[in-house]
Amino acid sequence: MDPDPLLSRATGYTTLAAGTEAVAELEIKRSRFLAVLRRAGTEAEARALVEELRRSSHDARHHCSAFVLGPDRDVQRSSDDGEPAGTAGLPMLEALVLRRTGTAAGGADVTDLSDVSAVVVRWFGGTLLGAGGLVRAYSDAVSQALDGAQLVRPRRQRLYRLPASHADAGRIENELRATGLTVLGTSYGAAGAELGLALPDDDAALAAAHSRVAALTAGTGVLHPDGVDWVDSPAAPPA
């Protein structure tokens, strides 16, 4: 069973941008390796990529796969799909799990890539590569695909609704955005407008947001809780 991401211990992680695909192709001793990576939030979504490539590349000998799921990376799976044990799926999984996505305070590497499904399709070229050659090929194929991937950083956010008058909604939205708050949009109805906000799941940040709203609305604006969700933000490149 896939873990509930809203019960995660993590408040953020790195993944592929929704709707994007990362691809790389290698040729080693006439064997062709095609790596395809996509975002996946569940095991079903991760395995769907494997089945899709089996159908579209049915002439290939191997469709090896690996995926890591959940903000805490609780789910990790890999498959060698007929290659010698440990020479394909595990190196692919390690390329995902050990991928450096940033630098933490103190200089330590951040390795928090998740919700990614990777498949490497191999067309055998007639020459055996040996265990070491296979490990390098499958690992390099995933790593090179990640080099060109568009990454984002989902952060756990508390959602709020902020009622406002039609006359004030545009000004409040612009000023909230200018302070760095995430405004999901503004809806307009007969009785007035309502702004949707996503605020960091952090007590200090929430207190600061309440203070900003109070200042912008002369104390009349009230934030109404509207649940918790993960919201994508741009991922800074590793330093």
Task: State the gist of this model.
The protein is of the alpha+beta class. It is 28% helix and 36% strand.
Keywords:
239 residues, alpha+beta, five-stranded antiparallel beta sheet, 5 helices, 28% helix, IMPACT family protein
Q: Can you lay out the helices and strands and say which pair or pack?
A:
Blueprint: E1 15-16, E2 21-28, E3 31-39, H1 43-56, E4 62-69, E5 75-79, H2 89-97, E6 102-103, E7 109-110, E8 116-123, H3 130-147, E9 151-164, H4 166-178, E10 182-189, E11 192-200, H5 203-216, E12 224-234
Antiparallel strand pairs: 1-9, 2-3, 3-8, 4-5, 4-8, 6-7, 9-11, 9-12, 10-11
Helix pairs in contact: 2-3
Describe the structure.
With 239 residues, the protein is α+β, with helices and mostly antiparallel strands. It is built from five helices and twelve strands. Strands 1, 9, 10, 11 and 12 form a five-stranded antiparallel beta sheet that branches. β4 and β5 (75-79) form a beta hairpin. α2 packs parallel to α3 (130-147).
